[in-house]
What we know:
Order of helices and strands of chain A: HHHHHHHEEHHHHHHHEEHHHH
Strand order of the largest sheet of chain A: 1-2
Number of domains of chain B: 2
Distance between the termini of chain B: 68 Å
Largest sheet of chain A: 2 strands, antiparallel
Number of helices of chain B: 6
Strand content of chain B: 5-15%
Number of strands of chain A: 4
Shape of chain A: globular
Shape of chain B: elongated
Helix content of chain A: 55-70%
Largest interface: A-B, 122 and 100 residues
Oligomer: heterodimer
Helix content of chain B: 40-55%
Radius of gyration of chain B: 23 Å
Largest sheet of chain B: 3 strands, antiparallel
Amino acid sequence: MTTELLGILFIFAMTVALSIPLGRYMARLYAGESTFLDAVFGPIERLFFRASGIDASREMTWKDHLKALLTINLIWFLWAMFVLTNQSWLPWNPDGNPDMTPDLAFNTAISFLVNCNLQHYSGETGVSYFSQIFCLNFLQFVSAGTGMAAAVVIFKAIRDRQTTELGNFYDFFLKSCTRVLLPLSLIVAIVLVFNGTPMNLVGKAEYTSLQGDTVQVSQGPAAAMIAIKHIGTNGGGYFGANSAHPLENPNYLTMIVELLAQTVIPLGMIFAMGFYIRNRRFSRMVFGVMTVGFLLLLAPTVWSEIQGNPAIDRLGIAQTHGAMEGKEVRFGATASAYWSIITTVISTGSVNSMHDSTMPLSGAMELLSMMTNAFYGGCGAGILNFYIFIILAVFISGLMVGRTPEFMGKKVEAREMKIAMIVALVHPLMIMTGTAIASYLASADANMGWWFVNAEGQPNHATAWLNNPGFHGFSEMLYEFTSSSANNGSGFEGLGDNNPFWNISTGICLILTRFLPIIGPVAIAGLLASKKYIPESAGTLRTDTGTFGIMVFAVIVILAALSFFPALALGPLAEYFSL
Amino acid sequence: MKTHFWPALKLTAFSILFFSVVYPAIVWAVAQLSPTGGNVEWVKKGDQVVGAKLLGQSFTDERFFLGRPSAVGYNAAGSAGSNKGPSNPDYLKEVQARIDTFLVHNPGVKRSDVPADLVTASGSGLDPDISPEAALVQVPRIARLRGVSPEKLQKLVEAHTSRSAIGGVATVNVLELNLAL
């Protein structure tokens, strides 16, 4: 166990060590300074912009940014819907997989558009190779690029003191995709193919096993997608079992690479912010708060997975390697526990073990990671979410000392606070109302009619979507809405979620919880940037200190605890105390 | 919205070309240089393909080392875990039954020596490995059924045990071990 603990310590240290230089590089990139990839990508980007009729040097206001962002996202959504509902006749479908139903296509298109990757289908049977590459793999790049572009608007708004010119959306977006996501994805994909992950266009293979069974093997263009699913913190797996699948994650080394891949940009963005706004103390404060939160979530998870399942202990067998249900031997319980918290704090949502089978305390921590939705976070989205918490903390501490709240020399007033509150409340609102409706239906065992039919086309009753009874069943529904609302994409996958009820309800949840947390912070940053700059004085509340860090942490804890504790008590905590 | 529509549409077309054609093509081209050429690494017995190195397969014949229970019956056309929660009573009965079956088929093995990975399903349903303990606990049975010495089998298990350089997780590839029998 000690070597396994040292293993995850090593992985975390590696992540931090890699993300600092990456942050420095991204800060230079977004500031328009020269970088070593200019020679390769400069001409390509200029060609794309010229051919698309885009002047990438035109400065945009925050409203222009949002218009451009939302328009191009709408186009991507329509493209994704077209591909997914027509994949049966489109090329590269060697396994003859059928078109998606409209509700599943809606859920899948939205889910990949918003960087969530909920996946109510299984890769082997639900999509063609064309859909994997031209729809899902494509959206994994551009949705990550969108989040990063929105975060850079905030960087620029903070740095430029008093301005309405906040850079160009297309410029930030395309640079994020070509100069950050693409090179990193190439590295990861190459590591994967050299470790046995397939990258071909061949359909299912068949062989006869050693004892004579006929077995089929799904394959295809997996490596490319698995790389960007982590680099872009998307999490949507090529195969159904995601990164627990031996072809998707062949060994401990690839597991390290996939873990580094999903953590390096979110951490890098934090450091990039410090370099960009020329206040590294501020990004150290942010990193400190996030790391404390992360470690507090990690420790109980690792502990409970190493302990194993008490109910299995009572059966009298040896759990020397911890809780093994839903886990792969090559990763072990410790690294799987580490992954389960990394993937939930960072909104990746890829899994290397099945979260539905993790211990109750681990389930509670995975849920809490997504409920707080503040530690590290996804590509760009992490900064956007944290920005709201900073604004809230500035406001509350301003009131406590009896001064007008200020952030980086700008007065935070009623309008900004209203926006911040809407964004802060949409997350618990979506989780709570969604879970309440689903668990009401399940407790009444309602006849679901068209919303949930079984394989024979007959209406199902609501409890049929649960894979586990009791408290754990409640957790399955809570997890699904929490994961949707945090744009995470992992799941308690026992839940029967490929039906109109879950596809449509979580789809709507995904739209709101992606775009409001982009619109809100960008609007606040834009509004603040246009205000008069007030130079620092003795009475200024400094936001780059440890004291302010504690304040932000307290705001996060209070908000999360007040909103979510009752739900956690009914689900994983009740299961923990009854086990 | 309108001023952005056409530029955004054109940029989308170029992005698709770049990220869905050029990028996968580069990965595919590099994959051709890898030992497996971008394909699944097959395991052969003689010149007959009997499995894939990374994919577990079902062993029910007692003369072989058995792998872990699988939620998909080791058919790699799909992949899934059981998704059973730790407190699910039906699940716990199932584990109990697996333990009992194992003890019946492996007389002399103490209940407290049965490793958890042998009676719990993996996340993918295709786990190619078991822990060294899970292999060693099966040695007496296989030695008896095959009429070979337990010491020889133990050495074989040790030879097929690999440890990750970082983290030190020990695994035994079941297919390769069984091929070596």
